[in-house]
Design goal:
alpha+beta, OB fold (Dihydrolipoamide Acetyltransferase, E2P), 2 domains, 6-stranded antiparallel sheet, 23% strand
Length: 345
Amino acid sequence: MELRVSIDDGGNPRVLFPIHFEVPDHLIEFSTLQKCSRGVLDVFSGIGVGFPDAAVEFDVVLAPLEEGGVTAWIGKKAHVGTYFLLGALAGPFADGFIEEATGREVRDWGALAYNEAGKLLVDFSQELVDGVREKMIEAELCRTLLEVNHDRFEELISERPEMAREILNGRRKFYEACKSNKRLPSIQLGVLPETRRIIRREFPDRMVRDHIDSTKTQKTIERGEWKSAILSLEITSPNWERLDQQRGWKGKLKDGKYVYFEISDTRFWQMFEEKSLDADTPDHMTAQFLYRDVNGRFKAAEAIAVFSFNGKNVSKPTSQSKVDQRIAERNAVQAQRQDGLFRET
């Protein structure tokens, strides 16, 4: 990963990622750059779905390399105090999606952002750190969702199906622009050796035209039915800030799988506030979960009844009738979302 972090003249964070066009000289047609930028714009917009008033701008800096080709640094600006990404991704599984797509947890991005802010200013605010963090995550998400092949894209987007349409269209525009340039044998969305070359014959795999053509994506999302289960986990990353919508909990099952989840059990939080729970030791929890089953993975998991926490009894199980009712309601909402996402117009 390589991101370029700076502050513009207005004091706003600016994060760019590189696109290297491996043309045999230092020249790239403006039309190619313009069409690619439109595709990137759609990907950024898809990532920020839910905030239609979010302003999107691009800073493209052409930097010819000695070995040939042209590198365009591209990104999105936002004014301090008007950040959209984590708001758009808010929920119990936002951090799981971010970690799977970027390879880093949200809190790790926060540490990186703090270091970058320190390089830019001696005296900087938490507001600036938050802005840099969101811009870094957003840039790396955009880069990743452009770079991966279609199978990997389907796997990632199954967690955020509402993003699929716009991002698919952005990928199509981007790679159609690359394919239409006969002088362009390959590109890199990043810098070697950290990122791989995408050669010309791989462009079509990334050019699925839109949500109607994406039958595999549709099937993947259709399998994402809501279910319930009783799980015992070792808590590897707790979050005792109940109102924090940017980060949930992370736990590990006995088989080594990780589960990202939120805890909605009011009795659990009441006991925490009363200091009845031991929150200072390695945590183990057994709870009744609702989750979305996507290819056998636990997505959007919610602990609705915590049976025990570090050996201390907390709540009784939720009745099966109530569980069934909640599952039916969520599956109905899921079906409506699919219908709206994949209806041919």
